Amino acid sequence: MTAFSKLHAQNHKITELSNVFLYLVQNRELCDTETACDVFFEYTAKVKEHIELVDRELCGKLISYPDQGVKNTADRFLSGSTEIKRIFNRYLKDWCSESNRRLMIRDHAEFLEETEQMFALVLDRIQRETEHLYPLIRKVEEKAAA
Known about the structure:
Blueprint: H1 4-24, H2 28-31, H3 34-62, H4 68-95, E1 96-97, E2 102-103, H5 108-145
Antiparallel strand pairs: 1-2
Helix pairs in contact: 1-3, 1-5, 3-4, 4-5
């Protein structure tokens, strides 16, 4: 059985970290604080962990399912994961030094805009998982158990 409680806990934590970070960075002076950086890097780690878990545990199972519609859904989510990872990695390269665990903000307004877009992309992905992927997994697991 898929651990939906773990997925939901991850979703909640990612959403919480996103909200806190977006609140903090509205004020330019708070962007360079250790606290803001800690929140940011915890967020990035949780997002990466979550996407890997969904790809491996959910999509990995669905992609081998005999029903073509199920396979197509899994394939769409895997393609979406690849695109989110690409955008996320570019965002990280542009705005932070992961090795030094610090943000590198040259233009605060641009950073805010890109951060809001990136975080919205992740939250949209989580919403789509909750509304489409999780119910599909439950249905597939119920069929297998019957």
